[in-house]
């Protein structure tokens, strides 16, 4: 704890020095840094209770025995929320922000009031989110749920970070950031932090930003008072019921047949060596495809676009034989009489949780290497089409033509002898069919690269529409086949 406090003190000192050094910078640069950083900090205060899952020491239920009026208790707990290490750090940084805006020409009262509104917004937002967590997420809290929240944040943070790192300032703020700051300045996340800068610039939107910031504080205060009243009249779930037996993914998934199948599939995908090897091979195989192109003399910036679509293709192809990996455990699905769509959708959840973050991180990096962000919609459309079309065809192939694989517990590199060409047909059909169905998105992306960049938008929406349509049709067909061939699938599972 001492080491953590020292690191926090050092980071706070560095952040204060960085803020105060902006006094001599241009006003638009200071506004960009302040609004982006302030919006991120405000969002972090709201997400921290969802991710951390810590017990709230200021939970209103703890003070119910004091018999205080609900309004008085809500005000006291809100005031106590300002007494914490994160709030103290935020207050110091807010003071530095107010000093910077005063140095930029804004009246000191405008800079101080904007900083105060920013701190109050963060504290009240944390209180509200903590209360919502205690009401709705406490009984389902687990490492898996926290991991999902962190994964969702990475899907957003990494692409944004790559995009910001690729911008060239050349002494002025890039136009992309100017538009982003203008939008954030009139949102509850950034209005308070933008107020002082807009006053310093003499911008007419300063009044709107002030109105939004004050309204945000007022709405958060009302929400906190309402949540305190609700919490005091709601019984907390017992700890023993909430933490029974370490249910893992089953505690996170919905209590439906599809949710149970998705939870069981997630356990397999993250623990079974056969699944893990298949996932780890995908990045390696995708990168290897770039080597022959480099040797053949293809420009490196073009080669940078190739591995990501290949990874999307392989990710969509992964569950084409998922039924076979269940082995005799398939009897649970057949004997319980689950609907086909529950089985099909539940099996796709692990691939989506793996594929979406992987592609969300890989696509911006590929565009960064290519050097032209206008092509981002085209590459995203191609990857979406390949990924979703592959999942749709795999939903059909896994019940129409399953083939024998290594049994649970065996080496993933040990494959059984197979009679006939069922495995080659299933693999080839899904792979080739995915490429054929994604041909329109691939064609529009090629036009965007070679001729008209406007075709990138067509590639995005065309690829998304094609992928969603094929996925829905694939799930529907696979569901019908699963219900009709349940007995034969059981025979296959028992005999392989």
Draw up the topology in text.
Layout: H1 2-20, H2 27-52, H3 70-80, H4 85-103, H5 108-137, H6 143-166, H7 175-184, H8 191-201, H9 206-232, H10 239-242, H11 249-252, H12 257-271, H13 273-288, H14 290-295, H15 300-303, H16 307-317, H17 322-326, H18 331-335, H19 340-370, H20 376-400, H21 422-437, H22 439-450, H23 455-484, H24 486-495
Characterize the structure shown.
Helix content is 75%, strand content 0%. With 496 residues, it is mostly helical. The chain has two domains: 2-242, no CATH class; 253-495, no CATH class. Helix 4 packs antiparallel against helix 5 (108-137), helix 12 (257-271) packs across helix 19 and helix 19 packs antiparallel against helix 23. The longest helix is centred in the last third of the chain and has 31 residues, at 340-370. The chain is globular.
């Amino acid at each position: 704890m001492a080491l953590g406090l020292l690191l926090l003190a050092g980071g706070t000192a560095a952040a204060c020095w960085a803020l105060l050094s902006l006094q001599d910078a241009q006003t638009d640069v200071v506004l960009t840094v302040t609004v982006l950083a302030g919006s991120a900090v405000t969002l972090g205060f709201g997400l921290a209770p969802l991710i951390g899952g810590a017990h709230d020491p200021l939970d209103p239920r703890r003070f119910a025995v004091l018999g205080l009026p609900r309004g008085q208790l809500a005000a006291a707990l809100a005031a106590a929320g300002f007494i914490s290490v994160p709030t103290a750090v935020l207050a110091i940084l807010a003071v530095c922000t107010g000093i910077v805006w005063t140095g930029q020409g804004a009246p000191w009262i405008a800079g101080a009031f904007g900083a105060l509104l920013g701190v109050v917004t963060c504290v009240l937002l944390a209180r509200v989110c903590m209360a919502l967590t205690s009401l709705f997420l406490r009984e389902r809290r687990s490492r898996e749920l926290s991991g999902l929240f962190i994964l969702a944040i990475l899907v957003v943070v990494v692409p944004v970070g790559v995009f910001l790192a690729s911008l060239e300032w050349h002494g002025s703020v890039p136009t992309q950031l100017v538009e982003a700051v203008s939008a954030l300045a009139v949102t509850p996340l950034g209005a308070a932090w933008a107020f002082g800068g807009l006053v310093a610039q003499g911008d007419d939107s300063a009044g709107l930003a002030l109105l939004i910031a004050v309204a945000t504080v007022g709405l958060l205060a009302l929400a906190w008072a309402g949540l305190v009243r609700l919490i005091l009249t709601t019984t907390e779930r017992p700890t023993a019921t909430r933490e029974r037996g370490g249910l893992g993914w089953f505690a996170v998934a919905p209590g439906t047949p599809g949710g149970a199948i998705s939870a069981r599939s997630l356990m397999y995908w993250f623990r079974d060596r056969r699944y893990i090897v298949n996932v780890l091979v995908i990045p390696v195989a995708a990168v290897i495809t770039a080597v022959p192109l480099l040797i053949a003399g293809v420009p490196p910036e073009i080669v940078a676009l190739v591995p990501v679509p290949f990874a999307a293709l392989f990710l969509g192809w992964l569950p084409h034989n998922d039924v076979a990996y269940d082995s005799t455990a398939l009897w649970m699905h057949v004997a319980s009489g689950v609907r086909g769509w529950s089985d099909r959708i539940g099996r796709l959840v692990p691939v989506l949780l793996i594929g979406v973050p992987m592609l969300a991180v890989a696509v911006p990096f590929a565009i960064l290497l290519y050097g032209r962000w206008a092509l981002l919609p085209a590459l995203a459309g191609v990857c979406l089409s390949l990924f979703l079309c592959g999942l749709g065809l795999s939903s059909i192939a896994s019940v129409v033509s399953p083939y024998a694989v290594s049994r649970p517990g065996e080496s993933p590199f040990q494959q059984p002898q197979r009679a006939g060409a069922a495995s080659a047909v299933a693999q080839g059909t899904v792979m080739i069919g995915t490429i054929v169905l994604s041909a329109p998105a691939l064609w529009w992306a090629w036009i965007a690269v070679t001729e008209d960049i406007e075709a990138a938008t067509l590639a995005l929406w065309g690829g998304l529409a094609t992928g969603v349509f094929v996925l829905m049709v694939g799930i529907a067909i696979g569901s019908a086949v699963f219900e009709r061939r349940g007995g034969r699938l059981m025979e296959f599972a028992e005999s392989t």
